[in-house]
Design goal:
single chain, Ubiquitin-like (UB roll), Jelly Rolls, five-stranded mixed beta sheet, 10 helices, elongated
Length: 278
Amino acid sequence: MASGSDDTADKTQQELTVMVTAMGGDKSWTLSMPPGSCVADLVQAVSTAGGPPALSQRLLFGSQMLGRSHELQDLAGDAADDTSPLQIALVQVKELNVALASAGAQLLGGLGDQQGNMEKPLMQHDIAFPIEKWGEGLEGVPSGQQNGEVLERVLREAGWDGDCQQSTFLHDDGQVQVKLAGDGAHLTRIGFTYSPWDRNRGRECVIEVSSDGESYMQVGTMHCPYVTERGDPSQHDVINESVEVPPELGADRQRFVRWSWAGGAGRRVYFVHARGYP
């Protein structure tokens, strides 16, 4: 009995050979992982070895989806054949805009209490700029469509006619609050598109995320320069703003995103977006 216990202890102190194979492809990585390694260490090692970004990786052991904190040695157990590498399958997920109504995201707070706001472009960027035409990586309004008069025509053709249907106007709290679908996502970039020529109120936007909807952590801030209060849309362009999510926040799944403008009551916003890996 003592000998068996010693053998088990010895294994936990040895490097573990792991073969990670991409499902649906012909790529694989054979890696030597140091003692005490967990799945988070493995996905980073795969990424460093030329594999997909760590946040996009979902690892399977048989049919079991592995959590980031799962220890590799627990998977290896006390297998009789110490020469065979631990076999792990990799599924790569796409980076998407997860703040879309079509993706199951919900608008909360005062804006969410008004059903008409969910029917506006705010969370329907994929309707205004279809993915099949513009691609999945588009953030905000593309170059060539940013002129206020041009965008008005684009949105009208997509089914929104006039300012009241095309713009979301912030309530007194100056906030947009979105709940992401399911367990949320590992977020990478968050942003918005706004009008600098009409109701451009609130000089700074604070972006925050939360896993539970109660405790929020700040991602970053973005300055919104004042241009004018009322202007000719044909003489102005909309502005796209975005900020990268720090790796320490992106490593955890976030289920809520909040955009806040102090003094932003009445501000005119066209779209919000939150990109990440669901």
